[in-house]
Amino acid sequence: MTKKIAWITDSTAYIPDDLKNNPDVYVIPLGIVFGNNVFDDGIDLTTEELYRRIREEKDIPKTSQPPIGKFAELFEKLSIDYDCAIAIHVSDKLSGTLACCTSASDSVPLRVEVIDSKSMSYAITTLLYKGIELAEQGIDCKDIAVKLRQEADKSENYIVLGSLEQFYKGGRMTGTQYLLGSLLRIKPIIRINSGGAFELFERVRSEKKAYLRMIELFKHAYHQNNIKQLQIMHGNVRNKAEAFKQDLLSQFPGLDIVIGEISSAIAVHAGEGTLAVIWHNEEK
């Protein structure tokens, strides 16, 4: 008999409606910190409210990992109805969320397989979909986890930041990189590398050139791999995402492209105006 699996992730993941409505999917929110106030991402603070506060207030907000107690409480609850759980989280190089999940799982009766996505946003979504598909085939929880850890290495992403200042103040880039980018009006292309950490991938002179460069990078990957879908994630710039989608479709007619918005936990660091592309490289 197929074992019942609970799927757990955090609020950096993009959760479309079908996953929101899946009774076996649970999302643990990160905290958004404004001064002495902590808001649960996606629950107490919408992205619209976040952007408004950033525009109107001087202090740049920060994020905080979920407390271990939230994980432990959820695991205790899930142990009643589930045989095991698979938790897929934001890269442990970017947040302590995965470490908190692992610590909590050590003290509960539920078997929990914890997976480092080595990324965030739709890269996590892809792993959730793949895991659920494997579960529907009757594959064991442990074997699914092994497969998903392998799949995590196949994600590729490139990001054009909406705010260098927020990225710098959030500790995601050095003062020298920030100064150069500001003075020279450079638009850096950032990526989450294979180790799961942010890195400066390339410097370009304008946003337009950055978008063209991302199309070039996708074109190279597209010819080398089997890519079923591309995701465009944005920070309150749906019009730019739609325009970028049309630019891609002009070169890749029929390509399945999903547009989604980055979560507040990501927007705190990346800023309003951010645009990112994510895809999953499968062998041909």
From TrEMBL:
It comes from the Bacteria. Keywords: Lipid-binding. Pfam families: DegV. NCBIfam families: DegV. This is DegV family protein. It comes from Paenibacillus profundus.
